[in-house]
Amino acid sequence: MTDADSTALERDRAEALSRAVAPLEDELITPALVIDLDAVEHNIAAMVQRAGSPQRWRPHLKTTKQAVVISALIRAGLRHLKVATLDELELVLRTGAAEDVALDVLVAYPLQRAACRGALALAARWPEAQIHVLADSPAHLEALAAWSGSDPLSVLLDVDLGMGRTGSAPDRWRALEATPEGLSLAGLHGYDGHHRWTHREAAHAGYGQLCALAQAFLERPALRIQGAFELLTSGTHSYAHALAYPGFAESKEAPSPNPWLHRVSPGTIVFNDRRSKPAAEDLGLRQAAFVASRVISVGPGRATLDAGSKGVTPDADSRGSCAVLGHPALSPRRASEEHLPLALPEPSLESSLEFGALAWLVPDHVCTTVNLHREALWIRGDRLVGRGPIVSGHRPRAPLTEAQEARP
Ligand SMILES: Cc1ncc(COP(=O)(O)O)c(C=O)c1O
């Protein structure tokens, strides 16, 4: 496809988005997050097919944070999910109960005492769900054992495969001889977010370390491992390495050649963003999340939008916070909190970006963009189909009301 063809397609898409929100013209306060549910369903189906089965994918919900998306994942057959915050945990448990399915949720964050108690309280409210937490180190494992309640708390050990953010190195975990009372050991978490799309060899070396540790653990009866031992790796930038790693391969034959069950955990691919281009090409992703923004000021050679760092990609790097759909020649300058100046390379662009005009932004980083918004508008093609709340942050807060949970 030529650049001109892809610009024409983007313009069509921008027009369809504008038609979708037209019924809200009088109340659409920008910047506003708009989610295309058709694109969400397309992306979920693409990942399920790439993974080979919904069982092989434990998506991280920190990207999407909305009941309507969790319901779409459930409809696609997913039952294993990953969260980072208590708000996300509450949302997923509530949605699983509303959909009448028993979910299996990993809180993939090294919980401290108060947060661990919060997670246990939520688990007690929705006992049909299976919850796991992450142990960061042998000392944290002991602490989790002390904080666990009357039922054994299920844990995955966080193995640092070189990312240097959380978890303990394989050698440190290797010294673990027994699972402390009060806990049960469900698997190993080796998130390799430091590897890019081209780092296959390095990624595979890390997976080798993870499998060697799992093998050693499966031979230790005092670890009391029961059921499928999970090896959980990889987000959007490395799932392809993990799915190509023979040590994780699934077999349709019984017994499986590998004594563990491997899953990948990309979350960004459900919405897609500019940072995820290789995965988007690999999976044929569609862009599902947009920020509707308006021109609030026009000057010589520039138009300023109302989506600053509080509207789109607060953690922008040198690539800028977003692209303007249908206007590849426009380069966003450095955003301030509420303002995003665009440099206009040709004066003719000034006419399409006149004062008050809608501009559709594709976030550079969709996870942090979603987290800025309290609400999303849901569309399908050029139709508005509903709106609903987004959970954000760790803070324990009042449960969602019925009205807030309204669906399309
Ligand atoms: C622990 C963990 N798992 C999974 C993911 C999902 O990765 P991605 O957002 O690249 O899809 C992340 C992302 O930061 C993460 O921190």
Topology diagram in text:
Blueprint: H1 3-21, E1 32-36, H2 37-51, H3 67-75, E2 80-83, H4 86-98, E3 104-107, H5 113-125, E4 130-135, H6 138-147, E5 153-158, H7 170-174, E6 183-190, H8 200-218, E7 230-233, H9 239-243, E8 261-264, H10 277-283, E9 289-299, E10 302-305, E11 322-324, E12 331-332, E13 340-343, H11 349-352, E14 358-363, H12 366-370, E15 375-380, E16 383-389
Parallel strand pairs: 1-15, 2-3, 3-4, 4-5, 5-6, 6-7, 7-8
Antiparallel strand pairs: 1-9, 9-10, 9-14, 10-13, 11-14, 12-13, 15-16
Helix pairs in contact: 3-4, 4-5
The chain binds pyridoxal-5'-phosphate.
In brief, what are we looking at here?
The chain has 408 residues and is of the alpha/beta class.
What does it look like?
The chain is an alpha/beta fold and 408 residues long. Helix content is 30%, strand content 21%. It contains twelve helices and 16 strands. It has helices at 3-21, 37-51, 67-75, 86-98, 113-125, 138-147, 170-174, 200-218, 239-243, 277-283, 349-352, 366-370, and strands at residues 32-36, 80-83, 104-107, 130-135, 153-158, 183-190, 230-233, 261-264, 289-299, 302-305, 322-324, 331-332, 340-343, 358-363, 375-380, 383-389. Strands 1, 9, 10, 11, 12, 13, 14, 15 and 16 form a nine-stranded mixed β-sheet that branches. It has a seven-stranded parallel β-sheet with strand order 2-3-4-5-6-7-8. Strand 12 and strand 13 form a beta hairpin. It is elongated. The chain starts with a helix and ends in a 19-residue tail after the last strand. The model is unreliable at 396-400 (pLDDT under 50). Pyridoxal-5'-phosphate is lined by residues 60, 63, 82, 108, 191, 193, 235-237, 265-268, 367.
